[in-house]
Amino acid sequence: MQARSSTQRGSTMGYTVSQRKDRGTWVVRCTVNGQRTQRTFRTEGEAKQYALKAEAQRQEDEFNGVMGRKQKYTFSEGLQRMVSEYDVRSQKQHILLVARWMDEHAPGVIIGQELLDAARRMQKALKEKGLAQSTINNRIQVVKRVLSLSYREWDWIDLPLDGKLRKPSPKNERHVYLTEMELAELLEAVPKRYKVERKVILLAMLTGMRRGELMGLEPGNVYNGRIVLRPNQTKSGKPRIIPLTEEALPLVLGLPFDTTGDRVRGAFEKARERIGRPDIRFHDLRHCYASLLASKGEALTSIRDLLGHSSLTVTSRYAHADPARWESVVAKLPRIGNQTATTH
């Protein structure tokens, strides 16, 4: 194991600034109330600026009598706790990419206003890089969830800051909807060797569940002909109930599914290639489920609850699928042409 080499360049009150020659970085260290903390920076200037600011904050806290009242935690610590306590498989890729960005551009960032500022810089940088708004929103959601848990569950911060991070509505929303016949064709195209994966794909069609939610299903999630998702199994952090059709009931026997998310994706991609629809994504099955319900006249409020949407604004994209809805609206208009003509 290679020994760490560092050269101390100075200190600001209780904070020491030193260089790590093996990595070419600068480290700020401090011990307060027996607790040692450190943060890493790319340049000496950034390290010294942080040390000065941190020492000023320490003195202010001490003056106001709040020193040691609430320990400060880093975003990295928040991510680690979130991953260990919650099912985050549906966010796995975004969590890794956000962690990588923060490590490079805001190492050791503290949960609070400092994290908010870093998240906004990340938002701007990703937009300048040309990423789709939906992708940027998924990255921001990772930060929002850490902030939310830090306030509501872990008591790490005193204010609910997650609401201060905006997620603009994406202008690149996908509108890929398959008919019942096309869904059946896609299912039939799944190679025979993917028996378990075929069940997962069919259940996605019949429930509108996300792939991460499907892969996290356990026997305890099935009750009285329904799938009951716990708060730690949903993207919104809220429980959700999805009724099962007769066709779906046999699919949930023997949970959990003996497969992986990668195998399900592989089976799905082979099926879409066979039917000549490389544009279809697994998540589109969720949209198809909602669109089919709307086409059968189901209320948007019911579809919202089944999908677990936070508001009707998100669900309203499926309103187009129910033409009868508009027919019933215009049927309420008066028959103007048949009114008794005014005589003169």
Question: How much is the average pLDDT?
Answer: 83
CATH fold descriptor of the largest domain? hpI Integrase, Chain A
Which of globular, elongated, flat, extended, rod-shaped describes the shape? elongated
> How much helix is in the residues?
40-55%
Order of secondary-structure elements: EEEEHHHHHHHHEEEHHHHH
Query: What top-tier CATH class of the largest domain fits best?
Result: Mainly Alpha
Helix and strand composition category:
alpha+beta
Domain count: 3
Report the radius of gyration as a whole number of Å. Answer: 27 Å
Question: Whole-Å distance between the termini?
Answer: 106 Å
Number of strands: 7
InterPro entries: DNA_brk_join_enz, Integrase-like_cat_sf, Integrase_catalytic, Tyrosine_recombinase_XerCD
Pfam families: Phage_integrase (PF00589)
Keywords: DNA integration, DNA recombination
Protein name: Tyr recombinase domain-containing protein
Your description of this structure?
The chain has 344 residues and is of the alpha+beta class. The chain folds into three domains: 6-54; 75-164; 180-328, Intergrase catalytic core (hpI Integrase, Chain A, Orthogonal Bundle), CATH 1.10.443.10. It has helices spanning 44-64, 75-85, 92-105, 113-128, 133-152, 180-188, 195-207, 211-215, 261-274, 284-295, 300-307, 312-315, 323-330; strands at 6-12, 15-20, 25-32, 35-41, 222-223, 226-229, 240-243. The chain has a four-stranded antiparallel β-sheet with strand order 1-2-3-4, covered by helices on one side. Strands 5-6-7 form a three-stranded antiparallel β-sheet. The longest helix is centred in the N-terminal third of the chain and has 21 residues, at 44-64.
